[in-house]
Design brief:
Strands 7, 10, 11, 12, 15, 16, 17, 18 and 19 form a nine-stranded mixed beta sheet that branches. A four-stranded antiparallel beta sheet has the order 3-2-5-6, with no helix packed on it. It contains seven helices and 19 strands. It is an alpha+beta fold. The chain has three domains: 54 residues, RNA-binding S4 domain (Structural Genomics Hypothetical 15.5 Kd Protein In mrcA-pckA Intergenic Region, Chain A, Roll); 86 residues, Pseudouridine synthase I, catalytic domain, N-terminal subdomain (Alpha-Beta Plaits, 2-Layer Sandwich), CATH 3.30.70; 77 residues, Alpha-Beta Plaits, CATH 3.30.70. Helix 2 crosses helix 3. The radius of gyration is 39 Å and the shape is elongated. The chain is 23% helix and 24% strand.
């Protein structure tokens, strides 16, 4: 029975014997806090601000047209950077009429550089690869019958090009020409680590035991030359040998085999510092590609 006067009292929760909550005490779902809801407008603003800040930090600096004085002189073809430093220290270089002895001096566009009494202007660097034939030499005119390799690249450039390294009249194959004095000096150093590959023809079969001895290095005078690879050429007689070494001195190639009593009939340079004879017939030259130039500079 319901007692009178009890209509104004709030119902109280009661549990059944099964422990279930009555309909009056049904729990309400938890409400998400407003503060946890992402503020889209503020997030977008923060992201935009972050991007703008990164753009300022990563903004590339304007490339300066200034160039170091020694490089300016070297680029003119007058001499190497190292030699240019000597001239600068000696007071033999003027910029706009003023003697400059400061190392690292920067030449600006429009400056007039006087090197040892002559005004110099940087040349465009050019690189020519020749597949040299026989009977041409890199040496000077020591004998009238010797023809200079410069004949073969005549007209290739309006600048004076120089061969990188020496090559005698009987040696054929790849020969690089350039007016880049820094590169010429770089490949003349004994510490240069780029590979050269030669095809060598001998007067008789190379004995396997001699090949094994050569592969361990060869003593030439007071120096020992390390050979990176030496092998017979596939499908060729045992007189045809492939040789991979770092030195660019062709005379050394002949000396290696002569030490073991072999006469060298022919030496052909088939690879030079990553450059090959592919699609380059004997006696023909071609300019290097931009990527090949970059590769040479990075060696």
């Amino acid at each position: 029975m319901i007692k009178k006067g009890g209509g104004n009292k709030k119902p109280t929760s009661s549990r059944s014997s099964g422990g279930k909550t009555s309909k009056f005490s049904k729990p309400k779902p938890a409400m998400a806090k407003r503060s946890q809801k992402p503020k889209k407008a503020n997030v977008a603003k923060d992201v935009t601000k972050d991007i703008e800040q990164k753009a300022v930090v990563n903004k590339p600096k304007a490339k300066s047209d200034n160039i170091r004085l020694n490089k300016y002189i070297a680029n003119s073809g007058a001499c190497s950077r190292r030699d240019a430093d000597i001239y600068i220290q000696s007071g033999n270089v003027k910029v706009n009429g003023q003697v400059i002895i400061e190392m690292g001096y920067q030449v600006k566009p429009g400056d007039v550089v006087n090197f040892d009494g002559v005004i110099v202007i940087p040349e465009k660097k050019e690189y020519i690869l020749l597949n040299k034939p026989k009977n041409f030499t890199t040496a000077g005119e020591e004998e009238n019958e010797l023809r200079n390799v410069l004949e073969l690249v005549k007209g290739a450039s309006k600048y004076k090009l120089h061969p990188v390294g020496r090559m005698d009249k009987n040696t054929t194959g790849l020969l690089l020409f350039t007016n880049d004095t820094d590169l010429i000096r770089k490949f003349s150093l004994s510490t240069q680590k780029s590979f050269k590959i030669y095809h060598v023809s001998l007067d008789k079969n190379l004995k396997y035991e001699d090949l094994e001895k050569m592969s361990g290095g060869v003593s030439l005078g007071e120096h020992k030359l390390w050979i990176d690879e030496i092998s017979y050429i596939d499908n060729e007689p045992k007189t045809e040998i492939g040789l991979k070494i770092k030195t660019s001195n062709v005379k050394v190639v002949r000396s290696i085999f002569e030490k073991f009593s072999y006469d060298v009939l022919r030496v052909d340079r088939v690879a030079f510092a990553g450059l090959t004879k592919k699609n380059l017939p004997r006696g023909i030259w071609r300019p290097l590609t931009e990527q090949e130039i970059i590769n040479l500079r990075n060696l």
